[in-house]
């Protein structure tokens, strides 16, 4: 039986889906469509007969989220490669390919982003299997999506003849994101497909393509893999050689120059969910007026609009809206016409220029031990809600500028303060003096929730001196 190794790319910030998607917690980890996150859906879609354990390329900030979400989806991963810094898709794909080629140069690898939506998973798996003979024959197969509109937000693929679903065909050329007139002409021509950024190839075939078209990437990436360190089951690529690799996409580095590319047309539904208009378009549940609501959202006299509340207890009410987007988070609200969905990234850029925290940071900060969120922040004090997973523990740490007061809301905490260890139950509290070494653990089988009150001259997250950490954070 064919054994294909999925290579799931799990970086990116998804700025056009702000405020739900941000640099600290991007769209692939959110349940935008259904109960599972986009990342979980991608990993599940690329599993089953004919598929091996997925290899994931991500960064250090997301590594524990990746493991947690794969475990929740009951998927056992293969290697999880940690990029020291973002260098775009070409170095990431090359690193994973080198790692897999060391075990089997003829290994078949399927590269797929982690943030796409494919409603018919089995149809996609069938399409992948249909591309296997071409990949085994030394071709690089990309998957082209049958277009249904003159989309300007995607790159396109040109074929020499009308596409035949389920059959590979030679690729003539890649086409950059077009303007509206060019997109309309390509749609009408019938020989163009959308570029999904999904590729199937053998490891040796891709290494040959890098040697021919981007040889300068091989040495630094190979060194980063050779000098990589195993850390808590993750493979940390070496930062010094990695920094010497060009920041370039796989399309620019290799694919647009390679002569051995085929296309497998796919028409069973796909979206990169690149903006809020795509979320509205792909939603299954709409009311009679074409509105899509999520969470505590109410539509009154609206039409063809998207209304989302992402916070329990926060109600979004739309009245008389037409073709609008309204997305409410605890710390930010987006209102825009659906036709301007691509421009949301401009809002992120403006917020970054003003150093607004909302530009990149999620209101809920995820950590390997759980998460926390700020409930109140003012001069010299901050109030947080902290949730610690069963069996998890924060690092043994101290603070230079702040003291802390912990009140357990539910569960039981094992608390270390100085040389004293005690159990703190619901409605009990403990005080952490400034400068004192301390640790918080959850010895129970249910999440433990507490309220933390910080007081001091400086309350930033970088005011942490770590002495021990079971997650080996640096």
Please report the distance between the alpha carbons of the first and last residues.
42 Å
- Could you state the oligomeric state of the chains shown? single chain
Count of beta strands: 28
Q: Please indicate the count of domains.
A: 3
Fraction of helical residues: 10-25%
The CATH architecture of the largest domain can be named as: Alpha-Beta Complex
The CATH topology label of the largest domain is Spore Coat Polysaccharide Biosynthesis Protein SpsA, Chain A
Largest sheet: 6 strands, antiparallel
Portion of residues in beta strands equals 25-35%
Q: List low-confidence stretches.
A: none
Mean pLDDT: 94
Rg, Å, rounded: 24 Å
Determine the CATH superfamily of the largest domain. Spore Coat Polysaccharide Biosynthesis Protein SpsA, Chain A
Task: Give a structural overview.
The protein has 474 residues and is of the alpha/beta class. It has 3 domains: 263 residues, Alpha-Beta Complex (Spore Coat Polysaccharide Biosynthesis Protein SpsA, Chain A), CATH 3.90.550.10; 70 residues, no CATH class; 105 residues, Jelly Rolls (Sandwich). Helices cover 22% and strands 32% of the residues. It has 11 helices and 28 strands. It has a 6-stranded antiparallel sheet, with no helix packed on it. A 5-stranded mixed beta barrel has the order 5-8-6-7-11. It is globular, with a radius of gyration of 24 Å. The two termini are 42 Å apart.
């Amino acid at each position: 039986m064919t054994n294909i190794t999925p290579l799931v790319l799990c970086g990116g910030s998804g700025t056009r889906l702000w405020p739900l998607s941000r640099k600290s917690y991007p769209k692939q980890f959110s349940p935008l469509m259904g109960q599972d996150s986009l990342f979980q859906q991608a990993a599940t879609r690329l599993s089953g007969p004919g598929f091996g354990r997925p290899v994931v390329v991500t960064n250090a900030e997301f590594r524990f989220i990746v493991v947690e979400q794969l475990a929740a989806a009951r998927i056992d991963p293969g290697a999880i490669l940690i990029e020291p810094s973002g260098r775009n898709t070409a170095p990431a794909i090359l690193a994973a390919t080198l790692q897999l080629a060391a075990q089997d140069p003829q290994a078949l690898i399927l590269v797929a982003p982690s943030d796409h939506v494919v409603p018919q998973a089995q149809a996609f798996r069938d399409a992948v299997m249909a591309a296997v003979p071409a990949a085994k024959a030394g071709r690089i197969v990309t998957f082209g999506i049958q277009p249904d509109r003159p989309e300007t937000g995607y790159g396109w693929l040109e074929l020499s003849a009308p596409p035949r679903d389920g059959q590979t065909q030679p690729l003539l050329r890649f086409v950059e994101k077009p303007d509206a007139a060019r997109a309309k002409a390509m749609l009408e021509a019938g020989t163009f497909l959308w570029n999904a950024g999904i590729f199937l190839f053998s490891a040796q075939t891709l290494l040959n393509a890098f040697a021919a078209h981007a040889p300068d990437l091989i040495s630094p990436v190979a060194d980063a893999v050779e000098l990589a360190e195993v850390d808590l089951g993750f493979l940390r690529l070496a930062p010094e050689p990695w920094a010497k690799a060009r920041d370039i996409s796989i399309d620019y580095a290799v694919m647009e120059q390679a002569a051995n590319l085929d296309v497998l047309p796919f028409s069973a539904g796909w979206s990169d969910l690149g903006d809020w208009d795509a979320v509205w378009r792909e939603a299954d549940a709409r009311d009679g007026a074409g509105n899509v609501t999520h969470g505590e959202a109410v539509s009154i006299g609206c039409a063809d609009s998207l209304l989302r509340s992402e916070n329990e207890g926060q109600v979004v009410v739309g009245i008389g809206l037409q073709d609008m987007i309204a997305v409410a988070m605890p710390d930010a609200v987006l209102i825009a016409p659906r036709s301007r969905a691509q421009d949301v990234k401009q809002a992120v850029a403006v917020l970054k220029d003003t150093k607004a925290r909302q530009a990149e940071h999620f209101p809920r900060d995820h950590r390997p031990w759980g998460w926390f969120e700020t409930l109140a922040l003012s001069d010299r004090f901050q109030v947080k809600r902290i949730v610690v997973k069963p069996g998890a523990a924060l690092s043994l740490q101290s603070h230079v500028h702040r003291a802390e007061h912990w009140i357990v809301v539910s569960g039981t905490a094992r608390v270390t303060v100085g040389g004293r260890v005690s159990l703190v139950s619901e409605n009990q509290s403990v005080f952490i003096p400034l400068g004192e070494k301390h640790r918080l653990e959850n010895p129970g089988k249910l999440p433990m929730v507490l309220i933390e009150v910080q007081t001091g001259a400086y309350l930033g997250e970088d005011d942490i001196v770590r002495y021990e950490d079971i997650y080996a954070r640096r």
